[in-house]
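ok posting inputs for the D-malate job
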Amino acid sequence: MSPEATARFVRALSDIVGKAHVFTDPDMTARYVIDWTGRWHGGTTAVVRPGRTEEVVGVMRLCREFGIGVVAQGGNTGLVGGSIPMHGEIVLSSERLDAIEAVDPIARTLAAGAGTTVAEAQTAAQRVGLTFGVDLASRDSATLGGIVATNAGGVRVIKYGDTRAQLLGIEAVTSDGSVLTRWKNFTKDNVGYHLPGLLAGSEGTLAVITKVLMKLHVPPTRTEVMLAGVETIESALALTDALRRAGLTIEAAELMTDDGMTLVLQHRKLRHPLGDSAPYYLLVEASGSPDVATVLLETLEQAGDLVVDATLEHGDRLWEFRESHTESVNAASVTPPVKLDVATPVAELESFIGVLRREIDSVFPSVRLIVFGHLADGNVHVNLLDADPAVAQRITEFVFELVVAHNGSISAEHGVGRSKAPWIHLGRSAVDIDLMKAIRHGVDPAHILNPHILPANSAPPTAVARSSARIPPR
Ligand code: MLT
Ligand code: ZN
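and the output
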């Protein structure tokens, strides 16, 4: 765009949202164009912060008129570069769309703007004696629009499912400025395609999410947290299974390794939570009995040799060891870490991690590997520290091929974004990818919504291109 056209565009943006909510000064836009890990660094024409749905409509119409790409951004906590503008797109920040509109304790739902943080939603639910079912370490910054757009997982998937499973309704603005509203305060609404479910995980490519209607849950009466050191992943799985068979409800079951624990202890200056270290650590939060602690202790006793050492606590202290992994990895790596969120069937995790460790040691000896994640979902976060950016691609390919060889998925809960787009064929068939492109082309024929991520849409499938309607003039 010429400098004159850019100036006209920015002026028109200011007319829609007010001058105070359009940033073009690099000092002001800096924090919106770099991701949390420092790996993805782009540039933007402008950051715009609409305060109402009508303003989002105006922004979308303007962008379509000028042919400018739009990257929607929530708390900027994503780990696949999906909300960073890499080609001058505008950043449409949901920061001001942050009102909690209603918490319904009878229907057990929460209605809120896309910019509401997960922590704010959790607090609002707690106020009426309920719980918000998505939880993750970035809760203070991650937004509801962001967790829906990426179909975030987190540590409670084992109990409540992923974000999509808890999404009842949505308001979103399409690229031509239409407002989609699916908003029923109950589950049984079975009229045609489940569009909220389609928008969940669409990573800003189908519409800009402005409001969400989420399910809430009745919280457990009493929970206890157990941290156990184990020799193998098989032992961690057997212990989790034994706890279930003892009648407990597993609220979360998380996996750590000794390398990861050591990094956290150094970074957070903490003392080791157990008397003996072990190759793996299982953190379980459990409920479901008036005396959870006794059931946990009895099960640990029966587990005998499965467990190296263990401790129990009521409260969040033991969670700190697990939740500090991401920041400890970032702080310890001399290059931005390569972060690969993958899943395998639980039965294949042990073999996957074993082969991964051996092969990284032998093929990339200068790279440090830290694995942690959500044991019960077979979802592990493969973190490669000190990797020379020149080998990041080769190492990613190597890990993904190993994932595929173990019948896994190259993206479990973080999405595809930019970092995984070149490998999407490893997770989806050609038919599947073509169908996604067709949907995308049908919904956003101008290709302005986060144009460079997921299966990029620069060349829509020919059959679709031929039959697609013209963009109506405005
Ligand atoms: C986690 O489980 O802590 C997150 O997915 C973040 C990460 O992968 O670093
Ligand atoms: Zn995770």
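notes: The radius of gyration is 23 Å. The pocket of D-malate (ligand 1) is lined by residues 79, 137, 325-326, 339, 341, 381 (CB under 6 Å).
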